[in-house]
Structure formats: structure tokens, C-alpha cells
Design brief:
The complex is a heterodimer of chains A (48) and B (493). With 48 residues, chain A is an all-alpha fold. In chain A, 69% of the residues lie in helices and 0% in strands. The longest helix of chain A has 24 residues, at 3-26. Chain A is elongated, with a radius of gyration of 17 Å. Classes of the chains: A mainly alpha (48), B mainly alpha (493).
Chain lengths: 48, 493
């Protein structure tokens, strides 16, 4: 892998990731995550 | 003391402060009048302070020893800062600038750059030291000092990270969970958001939560099949995937190696002194075994079993929650981390929850026990064969910013050395594939390399003309392997 790609790919990943996060927040996904995370997840702890 | 937090006493506080407190800690200030909440609140700060102090002291202890300064000086508060200033800036008096606003930031940045250079790194290595100081200091202090020292350093980092990200002591004291706004953010590892102390969300749980959402206006009940046909609200979890891509793009599976709580648990259990499942990976070693056919068969089984984690990811985390039933399938039927760090503490602290235990608890309990017992004999079975988060990070591992690299001019592979491959507990040949999807960046190979040919980091400091290879190397025919002089006791699958 060339020196350029060595840094360009992770940089691109960070930009794409940041874009996804911003889009997700505007689309209301972050709210859904918070809603799920602040209540005890009965399935996760093995109570169904 | 608790009367201090009565409504009448708090009335004079500005509203913005009260709402900031509530969004940060997840409960109203008036609830501090409850003794358990107040105690837990105070304990939260005590734990965070203690962990940060311990991380700093242990890092300074090792750094001072490296620089021929008495290690105990790292543990003495204030004095350790004076010695550190003397080491990095030339005079202990610079410590006084820590109390001057702005100047303290400048002194901190300069001292970190000098520290990086003292430890033989480029100035750029100071960036993680500045941004994530306690963890980066520990990594710098414990690396390149042999395998045993690095093993200690790794355990300290894992323990400290778990303690910091699960330090909401109100939850631990009251058998409840954190409900503040920090849970918008996902932690990097498999850390159940129902752990009483968890400040952040589990990425896999969050991924399923988003894919589970369904549009009620478009969903309908099919009387023919007797099932509810759901129309997904989101076809793709941009927010959670974005967070995972950022973390994975920066660190790759270093997260699995150092920051995952369930990985830490497996590492601790694997330290129990028992015979370990050992699979030699080198063809010359296999040929010398009593039953080479069986070894080759086990190696093939291991190779294909590792694809199982991708099956768990695509079937239980993505396909089933999206198309079949709005359930967090992986969390519900498989995830042992949820039961261990969420279920067990909550059920032991909260009798109502304990009373609700049933067949699902039994199923998850059996899975948990099997994985924990398995982890005694084999290194990180969950990470190798099951973890869907590890599967996502494994896609990002070969292209992440944090990399492993091989200095071929120092590597003695062609002379018959295979110490790194024999010491890799994940079964990766780091010389051939330094950034293999299976490598969890635990640092075992780097710490055991007698020729210091393995590098890791965001950038590599090299002598002029030296090339650090991060890509694959073709399988070559190695000369006969010097088994007697290799550390064969540590060969594991």
C-alpha cells in the first residue's frame, strides 16, 4: 500500500463516519439509541 | 447533609445549571437528598479520581524507571509532577506553571512532545498523549520493555478503561442504570448499556435498537401466516455505523485488544494456570508433532470457525432484527457480556429483577459459563468465533490509522526465527500479515520480538532509508526452524 493510501483510506473513513453520524442525528437515530440505552434492556440481561 | 439538596435550598440555583446536571448525570439534583444517591454520586468522583491517579502514577513509575530515576517517585502526588517537569522540561520549577491558566496547557503540550522524543518517538506521537493522556501514557510507558512488562501494562489499561467507563456508582449502589445524555455515545467495546455503572451505549445493542425500529403506519398483520409484517423505520443505522467506523478507522481492533470489557474478562480468566490449547502454526513444528493430521484438521476447523462471527453479525445483528422480529436477537439469545456485566449485578442488587429470571436467563447463563470455561483453556474464544463487533472491526483493521508494521531489515524470519508467530495468541503470523483482520493488536508479538522488528502506531519513526512494511508478504519457504531456541511454551491457538 502506498504512503498516500496509508493515510488517505483512514482519513476517508473518518470523514464518511462523521457524515454518517451527522445524518443519523438529523434522522432521529441518536434519539432511538438513547431511548433504548436509558431503560434496562431486559433481553440483554437475560430476562426476556 | 442530605437536607442541603432540598428543593427550597436548590431554588436559588440557575435553571440552566440544574438542567445541565440532569442531562449529564441522569437524575434531578433534588434526588441527592436520598443518602444512597448522594453516596453513589460522591463515590463516582472518588472512583474516577482514584483510577486516573493510579493510571498516571503507574505510567510515571515505569517512565521514571526507563530514565534511571527511582520508580517510587511516580507514586507521590505533586512530587511526581515536579520530577516529571524536571525530566521533560529541564527544571522542576515549571511545575508552578500548572497553576497558571493557559500557561499550564502550553507546558503540558511541550512536556508531552519532549516525553515522546525521550521515549524514541516522533513529535507526532505526542498527539495521543495530549488527547487521551492516561491511556497513551500507559501504552508508552509499558511498551518495548519485554513481554512480561507489556502484559502488566495491558492489564492495567484494560482494567482502568473498564473502571472509567463503568464508574457511575449511583447505579452500582441502587441497582439501577445511568439515564443521562452521555448514553447518546457508544463505547468502543462490548459494554452492555444495562451495566449499572455504564456511562455509554453498547454499539451492537444500539445497532440492533435502530434496526429494530419499525414504521407502525406501514406495518401490518398478515392473517394468513398469523405474523406481524414489519416495515423497518431505518434500513441502515447511519449513526451507530458512523461511530463504529470512526473508532475502527482510528484504532482498528486495538479496541478488542485493550478497550473491550469482555475481552478483558477473557484475558483475566486465561491467566488461570492450566494447560492451554496449543496449535503450532509453523509447518515444521506441525511435522514434529505426534499426530500432525489431527493438528492440521484442528487448524482447518479453527480457520473456518472464525467465519462464524460474520454469520452472527449478518444474521443475528442485521437480518433477523431488520426483517423477522423486532428483537435484539444477538443480545437476547447469545451475548454473554450482557448477562455478566449487566444481568448479574442488576439481579443481585434488585430483587424484583432477580424474581423475573427464567428460561432465557438459564440459556444465557449456560452460554456465559461455556465461554468463560473455554476461555481458561483457549485465548479469547468469544473474540475469535462469535463477536459481531470484532467482525465489524476486522473489516477496518487492515486500513485503520493505528497499524502494525515490520522492519524487514531487522526481521530474522529468513534466518529461521518465528518467535512472533509462536507468541501470537490469536494465531496470526504478523510478519506475513501485520494488519490481519484477526489481529487484536494485543502487542504480544511486538513485546516478544527479540530483534525489535515489529512497530506499531499511527506513524513509524525509522532511521533514514528504512522501510516499514504494513502490507502482506508472500508465503516464502523458510529455512529450518530453530525450535530449541524459541519460546515454545507460549505457543497457543
Amino acid at each position: 500500500m502506498s504512503r498516500f493510501l496509508r493515510y488517505a483510506i483512514p482519513a476517508l473513513l473518518l470523514i464518511v463516519g462523521a457524515g454518517f453520524v451527522v445524518y443519523g442525528i438529523t434522522d432521529g437515530e441518536a434519539g432511538l439509541v438513547l431511548k433504548k440505552a436509558i431503560a434496562i434492556c431486559m433481553e440483554c440481561i437475560g430476562l426476556g | 447533609m442530605t437536607e442541603l439538596f432540598s428543593e427550597s435550598n436548590l431554588a436559588s440555583l440557575p435553571e440552566w445549571f440544574k438542567s445541565l446536571f440532569q442531562s449529564l448525570f441522569g437524575f434531578e439534583m433534588t434526588q441527592l437528598s436520598d443518602p444512597a444517591t448522594l453516596l453513589g454520586f460522591a463515590a463516582t468522583f472518588a472512583v474516577i479520581g482514584l483510577v486516573l491517579w493510579a493510571m498516571n502514577a503507574l505510567a510515571l513509575f515505569r517512565i521514571f524507571k526507563k530514565q534511571d530515576i527511582a520508580g517510587w517517585k511516580g507514586f507521590v502526588p505533586v512530587y511526581n509532577r515536579i520530577v516529571f517537569c524536571k525530566l521533560t522540561l529541564g527544571s522542576g520549577w515549571f511545575f508552578l506553571l500548572s497553576f497558571v491558566p493557559v500557561a499550564n496547557i502550553v507546558v503540558f503540550i511541550i512536556s508531552m512532545v519532549r516525553l515522546a522524543k525521550l521515549c524514541g518517538k516522533k513529535a507526532g506521537a505526542a498527539i495521543p498523549l495530549i488527547l487521551v493522556n492516561p491511556i497513551a501514557m500507559l501504552m508508552l510507558a509499558y511498551s518495548e520493555q519485554g513481554k512480561k512488562v507489556w502484559e502488566h501494562g495491558k492489564t492495567i489499561i484494560q482494567t482502568a478503561f473498564f473502571a472509567l467507563t463503568n464508574s457511575f456508582m449511583v447505579g452500582w449502589f441502587k441497582g439501577s442504570i445511568y439515564q443521562g445524555n452521555l448514553k447518546y455515545i457508544c463505547v468502543p467495546g462490548m459494554n452492555c448499556y444495562s451495566c449499572p455503572g455504564a456511562w455509554g451505549s453498547c454499539p451492537i445493542g444500539s445497532l440492533q435498537a435502530v434496526l429494530n425500529g419499525f414504521d407502525t403506519s406501514k406495518s401490518w398483520f398478515d392473517p394468513k401466516t398469523g405474523t406481524y409484517v414489519k416495515a423497518p423505520l431505518y434500513w441502515f443505522a447511519f449513526y451507530v455505523v458512523g461511530l463504529i467506523v470512526i473508532l475502527g478507522g482510528l484504532l482498528g481492533r486495538l479496541i478488542c485488544g485493550l478497550l473491550c470489557p469482555f475481552g478483558w474478562v477473557q484475558d483475566l480468566i486465561h491467566k488461570i494456570p492450566t494447560p492451554k490449547l496449543k496449535l503450532p502454526r509453523d509447518e515444521r513444528l506441525i511435522a514434529r508433532q505426534k499426530n500432525p493430521k489431527l493438528i492440521r484438521g484442528l487448524l482447518t476447523a479453527d480457520k473456518y470457525a472464525r467465519y462464524l462471527k460474520y454469520v452472527f453479525l449478518f444474521v443475528m445483528v442485521i437480518f433477523l432484527p431488520l426483517f423477522v422480529k423486532a428483537d435484539p436477537w444477538f443480545c437476547k439469545y447469545v451475548c454473554p457480556s450482557g448477562l455478566l456485566i449487566g444481568g448479574v449485578p442488576l439481579m443481585s442488587l434488585n430483587q424484583n429483577l432477580a424474581a423475573a429470571a427464567g428460561s432465557l436467563t438459564l440459556l444465557k447463563g449456560i452460554i456465559l459459563v461455556v465461554i468463560l470455561v473455554w476461555a481458561i483453556f483457549q485465548f479469547r474464544p468469544f473474540c475469535k468465533y462469535i463477536c459481531p463487533l470484532g467482525a465489524i472491526y476486522s473489516f477496518l483493521n487492515p486500513v485503520s490509522m493505528y497499524r502494525y508494521g515490520i522492519d524487514d531489515s531487522k526481521c530474522h524470519r529468513e534466518g529461521g526465527c518465528s518467535v512472533c508467530a509462536m507468541n501470537c495468541k490469536m494465531g496470526v503470523d504478523v510478519v506475513r500479515t501485520p494488519n490481519s483482520p484477526e489481529c487484536i493488536r494485543c502487542g504480544g508479538c511486538k513485546a516478544s520480538c527479540p530483534h525489535h522488528a515489529i512497530h506499531s502506531g499511527f506513524r513509524f519513526k525509522t532511521e533514514e532509508g528504512t522501510v516499514i512494511r504494513t502490507g502482506r508478504r508472500r508465503r516464502e519457504k523458510f529455512p529450518d526452524f530453530d525450535v530449541e531456541n524459541s519460546d515454545k511454551n507460549d505457543v497457543v491457538a
